């Protein structure tokens, strides 16, 4: 195994204040895009400003989805990381071996310190991973997984699973299983990551849902960060993020909305196909769409091409399944889905359609989808809120239909975890409230196989079983649209959205490397 010294990435900054008057600034500021007040400082003393898509949902608790902010800011690190192909490679663990089908041994890296100065030890690894396994709710990478961890001397840990699990190293790459200092874990069950990670940047300040401040960690075990720090602002408004890039208020901008791209200098826009699918989830348990024939009618009503052409302005890929072109093997293994019921006439039946505002395109998709469903005979009522205010109702099955932009390989580099979480009877993110014996059996078969061609075919078979229920209607596969000023180099364009700023991210002169 080879170790690459490229770490998870830090976040950057943007000011919410730029919302006011941003429309007047846009046209005049395009020629100045990429300029920053920090350009007069020495490169190594400069801080980068990043505009983030969503504010934290749980106070940057690493046992939640907020963990991905910590990894994108290169604060918290895991035992394993994934390479570009999704294969595991060393990180805080230098090597590993499978002792038997249920037991793995991971050797811990020497001479690593947490941001509070305490050392990384095998016991500390055990404590962090055990906290994750005991969390309520569990990190979704552990859905359906029973895991016990113990120290093996001072230099290694043993990980045992209740069932044989070929993806243990992949699971341990999830940002939700980051290793943190003892100080992070509170008696009340909360986790505070301030000065508790091992990465090239240290989290110094959390300003609620407004911003966060990070400084370079000079005692980092790997290569010293080239930036002095990161100022990260949360900017849910897509227009404001686009304006921040145009005006130079932000150096790096996360998730530039498609609607803003035409207004921005193409030199500042970078686009990468990603494993993220915009899916219409249909409630299989309660309400009108519990009837399979009406779910079939909803599926047939969706005009994917129109959504991609109008809302995404062609900057997305029409979905042939749950898994998109970021998984290059998926399309070649697919066959037509069989066993779907015939569609019934909706005959004016009323349904509720929900989505959230945090991704700028989703409310637009909802408007177009409402028109398509009503043209097919449904009576549609929309409900659109911020994600933090709609998630609990979404997971409780309060909507008949829900539009979600969902990462399909976010956690393990393997889509089985996502499929289990969203579509298994015991899945923790089961918006469709699906519980189907055939789907569960297909997912269990895929989960038991070693990585390779057989597992990939089993994954596609599980996808077909899910699609046959019409619990989910995949509409399109999104692309990463990331904004970077011309004076920034080394910002990570990560399809899995685990990395953004790392120790190699830097400022350059006049846009020349």
UniProtKB/TrEMBL annotation:
<keyword id="KW-0732">Signal</keyword>
<dbReference type="Pfam" id="PF00496">
    <property type="entry name" value="SBP_bac_5"/>
</dbReference>
<dbReference type="InterPro" id="IPR030678">
    <property type="entry name" value="Peptide/Ni-bd"/>
</dbReference>
<feature type="signal peptide">
    <location>
        <begin position="1"/>
        <end position="20"/>
    </location>
</feature>
<protein>
    <submittedName>
        <fullName>ABC transporter substrate-binding protein</fullName>
    </submittedName>
</protein>
<dbReference type="InterPro" id="IPR039424">
    <property type="entry name" value="SBP_5"/>
</dbReference>
<feature type="domain" description="Solute-binding protein family 5">
    <location>
        <begin position="88"/>
        <end position="424"/>
    </location>
</feature>
<dbReference type="InterPro" id="IPR000914">
    <property type="entry name" value="SBP_5_dom"/>
</dbReference>
